[in-house]
Amino acid sequence: KLINSMGGWEVLRSFNLYAFDSHRVIKQLHADYGVNAFFKVDVVADVKSPGRNIIRISPGGLGMPHKSYYQRLPDDPAVLAYQVYLKDSAQLFGAASPEAHKFSIDMFNFEKRLAEITPDESFLTNPVKTNNRMTVKDLHTASMNVPWLEILKAAYSDAQMSEETEILVVSPR
Questions:
Q1: 132/5 Cα distance (integer angstroms)
Q2: pLDDT single digits (tens) 42-83
Q3: 14 pLDDT exceeds 80?
């Protein structure tokens, strides 16, 4: 019911392009369901202002344990096992086998592309490289297809949020 309420899912043959609102869906996933779709939004201690917190935007993570798994050959046992897992998961939601198989291949390839731009662990653990302050407006300018202010307001409704709110962006790329 939740999948259908957000516009459906092609794998289940319930996707309706005209009923799909990507801004509403990404906002709902982050604010209502705690899903780190494409990126993670959380609150951390502000190292520049002791005693204060700041919102941080960071990579959302990948399905496999490390980005190096996505560089393996297509017939690697770990790659094949992950694709079986994706297929089985789609089938548990009611997808037919051919659609679930196509989904598993497409999802793996999509995550492979995400892995290519995901920073290495050495970058992510370096506070000098990951402490990139920006305003919500600057972030929106850098990635206009994401309704940043709407997502942040929905996720942190008690906080005062505007386009001038400063946030940390771990990896501006």
A1: 36
A2: 999 998 888 999 999 999 999 999 999 999 999 999 999 999
A3: yes
Share above pLDDT 90 across residues of the chain, in percent, rounded to a whole number: 73
Say if residue 8's pLDDT is above 90. no
Give every CB contact of residue 132 below 8 A, 6+ residues apart in sequence.
168, 169, 170, 171, 172
The CA distance from 171 to 125, in Å, is 12
Contact call for residues 168 and 48 (beta carbons, < 8 A): no
Distance CA 131, CA 47 (A): 9
The DSSP line for 116-163 is: HHSPPHHHHT-HHHH-EEEEHHHHHHH-TTS-HHHHHHHHTTTS---T
Burial category of 50 from C-beta neighbours within 10 Å (exposed 0-12, middle 13-18, buried 19 and up): exposed
**Residue 147 in tokens:** 């309704």
Question: What's the pLDDT score for residue 146?
Answer: 93
Average pLDDT, the chain: 92
From CA 63, how far away is CA 74, in angstroms rounded? Answer: 16
Rounded Cα gap, residues 105 and 80, in angstroms: 10
- Beta-carbon contacts of 78 under 8 Å, excluding residues fewer than 6 positions away, are 64, 69, 72
